Amino acid sequence: MERSGQSGPPRTYEGRPLAKPDEDIFDQGLGFDIGTLMGRRRFLRALGIGAAGLGLAACGGNSGSGSSSGSTAASSSSSSSSTSSGEIPDETAGPYPGDGSNGPDVLEQSGVVRSDIRSSFGSASGTAEGIPMTLELTIQDLANGGAAFAGTAVYVWHCDRDGNYSLYSEGITNENYLRGVQIADSSGKVTFTSIFPACYSGRWPHIHFEVYPDQASITDSTKAIATSQVALPADVCKTAYAVSGYEKSVSTFAQVSLDSDNVFGDDGGVKQLATVTGDATSGYTVALTVGVDTTTTPTGGAAPAGGGAPGGGQGPGGTPPSGAPPTS
Fold it and tell me: Where is the composition biased (Basic and acidic residues) (predicted)?
């Protein structure tokens, strides 16, 4: 590469002009370093490789329990607006999607389009108990300048207060509660009535969702234009898990953090951390703005084959022997 005083084109690195052409690569400044890091992170994500090691090492990220570093990040987010500054990260659908990709398919059932997902529908009659939760997702069409993505179909699912998933977990394979679809209104918004989910071993508290271009597309999981997860703030989780019925989550939550989570850990869930209002008595409202870019190829989803029914042995994408959900 050429120095000052020499002829030729401007010095570049990985296709980008150097901010300080007379200095070494390592002396270009923080802004240049972050740009380089994020470019590599996007490249790794495209290859399906976790970038946690690269990102955290370069940025000096730290990890800790749910009440330390993760709590600090989540606490500030829970009291401020949570809006998307770009495309929502693509994530795994996990072993329990219920979208037909690995067995059970709730999206083929009449009645799945509903706002209150606390009870099962169809031939099932169970109801999930827990702290009331309203989930509000606002879908933005990034291919159209961030306009409201009206008409999209959003499928939401999550575990109950014991950390179990309907359709899969032992004792509730015939239930389909805590699963449902809503069609985005003119403002791109969908609203679900549910219960606050548990924290199970190995995962930060979260809610799964898939975005489809329209209602007609929901019966084919390959047509999802985005698959991601909502992260719940640490301060809210700590308060919720002190409520009777959530005892199992107290110890598991103390063992996880946003930094160490295998889904949110690469960036601390910066675009997935919800804004939460309300309280554990009257209920919580969980809100997140979701940017969807239809000009990019979705890389999320990909639930493991075979269903991964609880009770199996621990392994990659498998389930802990206690019957709790797996770590993905």
Answer: 13-23
| pTM summary value | 0.72
Contact, 144 vs 95, CB < 8 A? no
3-state secondary structure of 286: strand
Is the pLDDT at 68 greater than 50? The verdict is no
In a domain, 81, yes or no: yes
Q: Which residues of 32-57 are buried (b: 16+ CB within 10 A; e: fewer)?
A: beebbbeeebeebeeeeeebbeebbe
Return the DSSP state at 26. Answer: G
My answer on whether 127 and 80 are in the same domain is yes
Cα 24 off chain centre by = 39
Report the domain count for the chain. Answer: 2
Secondary structure of 219-257 as H, E, C letters: CCHHHCCEEEEEECCHHHHHHHCCCCCCHHHHHHHCCCC
Mean pLDDT of 205-232: 98
Q: Is residue 167 part of a domain?
A: yes
Instruction: From 228, 199, 279, select the one nearest 84 (Cα to Cα).
Output: 228
Cβ-based burial of 172 (10 A; exposed 0-12, middle 13-18, buried ≥19): buried
CA dihedral 239, 246, 131, 173 (to 10 degrees): 150
53 and 73 together in one domain:
no
Asked whether residue 317 is assigned to any structural domain, the reply reads no
pLDDT of residue 300: 80
pLDDT surpasses 60 at 26: no
CATH of the domain at 126: 2.60.130.10
Do both 48 and 184 map to the same domain?
no
Q: What are phi and psi of 235, to 5 degrees?
A: -65, -40
For residue 26, the one-letter residue type is F
**Residue 45 sits in which domain range?**
14-61
Distances 172 to 151, 159, 163, 289 between C-alpha atoms, Å: 32, 11, 12, 31
Residue type at position 91: E
Asked if pLDDT for residue 194 goes beyond 60, the answer is yes
Kindly state whether residue 132 falls inside one of the protein's structural domains.
Answer: yes
pLDDT at 14: 53
